[in-house]
C-alpha cells in the first residue's frame, strides 16, 4: 500500500491530472535542488515523487 492514498490526495486537489502535474514539478524540484519542506527523517518515502505526494497530502503545497 502506498502512502499517501489517492483518496486523501484527491480531497486536496480537484483532479488527477492537476495532481500529476503538481507532483511531477515538485519532484523535479526536490531532485534538482534538494530543498525539502520537512526534515528528512519525517518523510515516509525516500524518493522525490513520494515526498512530493506527502507534501501535497499535508498541505505543504497549496493548490488553487
Description of the molecule:
The mean pLDDT is 92. Helix 2 (16-33) crosses helix 3 (48-57). The chain is mostly helical and 64 residues long. The protein is 55% helix and 0% strand.
Please sum up the structure shown.
The chain is mainly α. It contains three helices and no strands.
Q: How do the strands and helices of this protein lay out in sequence?
A:
Blueprint: H1 6-12, H2 16-33, H3 48-57
How much of the sequence is in beta strands? under 5%
Helicity, in percent?
A: 40-55%
Tell me the Rg in angstroms. Answer: 11 Å
H/E element sequence: HHH
User: How would you sum up the global shape?
Assistant: globular
SS-based class = mainly alpha
Low-confidence stretches: none
How many beta-strand segments? 0
Gap between N and C termini, in Å? 28 Å
Instruction: Specify the biggest β-sheet.
Output: none
Overall pLDDT metric? 92
Number of helices: 3
Amino acid at each position: 500500500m502506498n502512502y499517501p492514498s489517492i483518496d486523501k490526495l484527491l480531497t486536496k486537489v480537484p483532479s488527477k491530472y492537476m495532481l500529476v502535474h503538481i507532483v511531477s514539478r515538485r519532484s523535479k524540484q526536490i531532485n534538482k535542488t534538494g530543498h525539502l519542506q520537512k526534515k528528512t527523517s519525517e518523510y515516509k518515502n525516500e524518493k522525490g515523487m513520494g515526498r512530493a505526494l506527502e507534501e501535497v497530502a499535508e498541505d505543504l503545497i497549496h493548490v488553487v
